[in-house]
Amino acid sequence: MCGIVAYIGPREAYPIILKGLKRLEYRGYDSSGVALLNKNLQVFKKKGKVAELEDSLVGKDVHAHAGIGHTRWATHGEPSDRNAHPHSSASGRLAMIHNGIIENYTQLKAELTRKGYTFKSDTDTEVLLNFIEDIQKNNNCGTEEAVRIALKRVVGAYVIVLLDRDQPDTVIAARKGSPLVIGIGKGEHFLASDASPIIEYTKEVVYVNDYELAILKADELILKNLGNEKLTPYIQKLDLELAAIEKGGYDHFMIKEIFEQPDTIFDCLRGRLDVTKGTITMAGIQNNIDKLTKANRIIMIACGTSWHAALLAEYVFEELCRIPVEVEYASEFRYRNPVIHPGDVIIAISQSGETADTIVAIEKAKENGAFIMGVVNVVGSSIARISHAGAYTHAGPEIGVASTKAFTAQLTVLTMIALKIAKEKGTIDQSRYIHLLEELHAIPEKVKEVLKLSDSIKRLADKYKDAKDALYLGRGYNFPIALEGALKLKEISYIHAEGYPAAEMKHGPIALVDEHLPVVFVATRDSYYEKIVSNIQEIKARKGKVIAVISKGDDVISKMSDDTMIVPEADELVAPLLSVIPLQLLAYYIGVAKGYDVDKPRNLAKSVTVE
Q1: For residue 551, what are the β-bridge partners?
Q2: Exposure on the CB side of residue 317, measured as CA atoms within 13 A
Q3: How many other C-beta atoms can be found within 10 angstroms of the C-beta atom of residue 149?
């Protein structure tokens, strides 16, 4: 999940690469570095964020028209100058950056050590690079051929980008399992882990597929497979604007993305949901409606926040569609021997569409005859291409590491899919169907009302920022929201927080309750309301501090609670789209109050493209 950027062409490479690294820093920020090729191949790298690399290069000669850059999320080897990328080969002829994990690197390292190679870092990347150089020497071949031979021996995931001191007019890249996009300019080429460093310069891109090798010169792009057969690049137009990846006056990307949710939810609905006609139009669903309505079961596969979206969607799908649903962590599913039959539908949910565990999981299910649907945000991503069908969430770029707008976009799309299937199956009556369309249609405006709570939640954050622990509780549709609220607080403020079904607190977590423990109840008015009131009374009887997300006009829970966050009333099936937003704001403001970089929480990266 490291960030990769490269350039070759007539411009100065360093400013382009540096700017690209700053835009990719959400993918990793343990260390960063650049390699620049002019007459000489120079490598500069530094532990810490990109700004520290930039400071270290003030006054240095960084003139070059070809270069590669990397911002790291550490896998092999602790964050340090020596483990930072790019790495140099033993002779200094090659420099390489890498995103991924080489699983058989210990075997390769042992081979090279026996041949007399020594290593300056603890990384698998340096091993692979020297393996490539060793092949060059022993086979008397060029870098391109050496890369091709090496990658046939490699086990694992990778995007690699190389510079060769003896080929100053060429950049070589290859991909398996990690994302890589090539930007095509006029007499120049750009490479990056995603489109954010590219959109400033060109809208024409090529998404590199697994087991493909790209050889780039300023005015030429050659794409090959590992069998050395030339491929025809498929050029696509980027549907992305520069403003979407800039802060736009906000202090952080996270708060910008929280406040974008009225628009992102509206964009999810636009062109799909038509209240006046009573229709939902989703081509990927309609074209495969028989497979969906006749599914034996639906298995939803996801990680992190997307798993919470899947868990909530399980409730929605089973309620509306009457199809059995299972929710799986992709990281567990991929290593089990799950029972998959033709007729099963797998829904893979991922913001980036590049989550490594999810990709492997759906490939495994696909081999067993399951029908794969992808729900992703990034157009052209790996999951989108692997899936038989699916739906984009249209949330736009999400730069903040903690997912906010992507989560509500996923919930919106999944709810529409469930409504579409239920309507086709006849498992929902017309009046309930129309009511839910109207409720969903009203959500963007109601989200705007919730965002007006921002100042009051900021004051609430100041009150609770010194808490050591927190408990988040909800029932029914609000239970996954409790999980998500707890996750946000952990990610952003480093306060230990746990989410539970409210009824389960009596089976253990209630032992934690005392006068110091904030207990956050997601307690909007729904069919569980009387039960949640009883749960709150149990906490108050033990002197716990109750913070409640409640529906407008609720005079019962408001009197029982120490603090409340009030959201507009909505049908319980769509109310989570409202109740999650105060929890996002609370986590954000607590993180800010504690002085943390909320866009780049420690040890985390946006897109988990490695195990």
Answers
A1: 567
A2: 25
A3: 17
Q: Which residues of 539-571 are buried (b: 16+ CB within 10 A; e: fewer)?
A: bbeeebbbbbbbbeebeebeebbebbbbbbebe
2 annotated active-site: yes
Residue at a domain's end among 409, 434, 451: 451
Query: Annotated catalytic, 268?
Result: no
CATH number of 336's domain? 3.40.50.10490
pLDDT(111) > 60: yes
Both 336 and 439 in a single domain?
yes
Q: pLDDT digits over 454-497, tens only?
A: 999 999 999 999 999 999 999 999 999 999 999 999 999 999 99
Burial of 425 (0-12, 13-18, 19+ CB in 10 A): middle
* DSSP reduced 3-state for 324: coil
Distance CA(567)–CA(576), nearest Å, equals: 10
| Residues 252 and 404 sit within 8 Å (Cβ to Cβ) | no
State how beta strands 297-302 and 325-329 pair.
parallel
Catalytic residue among 2, 268, 303, 321: 2
CB atoms within 10 A of CB 231: 14
Give pLDDT tens digits for 201-241.
999 999 998 899 999 999 999 999 999 999 999 998 887 66
Whole-angstrom Cα distance, residue 414 to residue 420?
A: 10
Q: Which of 22, 545, 600, 606 is catalytic?
A: 606
Question: CB of 478 within 8 A of CB of 576?
Answer: yes
For the segment 353-361, the average pLDDT, to the nearest whole number, is 82
